[in-house]
Specification:
alpha+beta; 29% helix; 52% strand; globular
Length: 128
């Protein structure tokens, strides 16, 4: 039997999971990415490319893009049962193929609670 959680504790846990996900992207922490993502992950990029969990993690771990910083602006979270919808503006600096570039895009993340742990089920970013 699982422990009952309050909306505020779920909100805090989801926020912590989102922050941990972005930290794992910045630090290229494969183990953390594996832990934070669902097996059924659907990861959509702002350019229209869709990746599954294996592709997403491989792409994140690759040398092509190195994130220097990622910030979440205007965050909002809506939790219904075991699903959390997280929206924000992702603002950051990435180095791609040796060139530094700023990134700013809208993001919708869908997190699902699995055995009391929030995992990223889907993510879609879009150009602003």
């Amino acid at each position: 039997m699982s422990q009952a959680t309050t909306p505020s504790s779920d909100n805090a846990a989801v926020t912590q999971a989102v922050d941990a996900f972005y930290q794992a992207v910045i630090s290229k922490n494969q183990q953390q990415l594996e832990t934070l993502t669902a097996e059924q992950l659907s990861y959509g990029h702002s350019v229209g490319r869709i990746e599954n969990k294996v592709q997403c993690i491989a792409n994140t771990m690759g040398p092509r893009t190195v994130w220097k910083s990622i910030d979440r602006l205007e965050p909002s979270t809506q939790i219904t049962g075991d699903i959390a919808l997280v929206r924000h503006i992702m603002s950051g600096v990435a180095e791609r193929e040796g060139k530094s570039e700023a990134a700013k895009m809208g993001v919708l993340m869908v997190w699902q609670k699995h055995s009391g742990v929030w995992k990223l089920l889907a993510r879609q970013s879009f150009k602003l």
